[in-house]
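Running this now, will post back.
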Amino acid sequence: MSATAKLSSSLDSASPRAASLDDVRPIYQILKHYSDRGLLLPRPESDIYQSIREFIVIEQQDQIVACCALQIFTRQLGEVRSLAVTPEFAGFGLGTQLVKKIEEEANQLGLSRLMALTYEVRFFARLGYSVVEMSVLPEKVWGACINCHKFRNCDEIAVLKQLG
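Update: finished.
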């Protein structure tokens, strides 16, 4: 059995779980890997501690290999945030598992819309998200984006999915 096949079969038992305080450092490291490459906005470790209850993770071989968070803006709108999978575990569907779990939680909470800011539009399109103008998301723009260093020159693409 090839290494890829072994890895793929071992991931069959991997499922998202709520993050704990012990997961903050590994989440930070995964996010930092991508923010150092300009693929995610940087997120300070202190921010992850403050929002740890928003995170879900996937653990494999006693190591956090994927993470994602659900941030809520209003009664209607939530955001898929900080979605990342370690490079060695990319391509095995872990990101999809995380987004689907976030969507389940959003539906349980009664949210009607879920958005993301991304460079990976095709990934989100496969999950039923559509590209939208940022003006459709004033809750995000004036609630979070306004404080971002990229506010005037944002190059992320907004995607939105209607839930329910």
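Residues 94-109 form the longest helix (16 residues). More later if anyone needs it.
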